[in-house]
Amino acid sequence: MARSTDAIVLGAGRALFGVAMLATPGPISRAWVGRDDVPSAVLLRCLAGRDLVIGGGLVAAVTRRGDPRPWLIGGALADTIDGCATLAGGDDIPTNGRMGTAALAAGAALFGAWLASAID
Questions:
Q1: Are 58 and 72 in contact (CB under 8 A)?
Q2: Is 60 exceeded by the pLDDT of residue 1?
Q3: According to the model, what pLDDT value does residue 111 have?
């Protein structure tokens, strides 16, 4: 698969995850931080907007033959921050949510950083 295709798949997946967080913040925030109250939903929807923008920007950059590297690097940095912030929450965040989110964020950050260095 071409690296540009990888970038489109990553961007589309990120945007779709953003849509899911906008549409159903309760189950996602419950799984992540153990709460589904209004403040958690508000913060999750803010993250959803960020992921929609990063994912959409990445897809747009690739399909318009622009440089996707800034979008890939921005996404990798955002994912790194998400993972670190989640781990910093410690025992106030359920173990499954903390470890799952940290693993997902780390994988996404590493893939995004690798793709930014490998894309032509």
A1: yes
A2: no
A3: 96
Q: Determine contact, residues 70/115, Cβ cutoff 8 Å.
A: no
Task: Say if residues 59 and 8 touch (Cβ distance below 8 Å).
Answer: yes
Q: DSSP string of the chain?
A: --HHHHHHHHHHHHHHHHHHHHH-HHHHHHHHHS--SHHHHHHHHHHHHHHHHHHHHHHHHHHTT---HHHHHHHHHHHHHHHHHHHHTGGGS-HHHHHHHHHHHHHHHHHHHHHHHH--
pLDDT of residue 3: 86
pTM passes above 0.85 = yes
Alpha-carbon distance values, 113 to 29, 30, 38, 59, 101 (Å)? 26, 29, 33, 16, 18
In the predicted structure, residue 47 carries a pLDDT above the cut 70: yes
- Which phi and psi (to 5°) does residue 104 adopt? -65, -45
pLDDT of 120 reads: 72
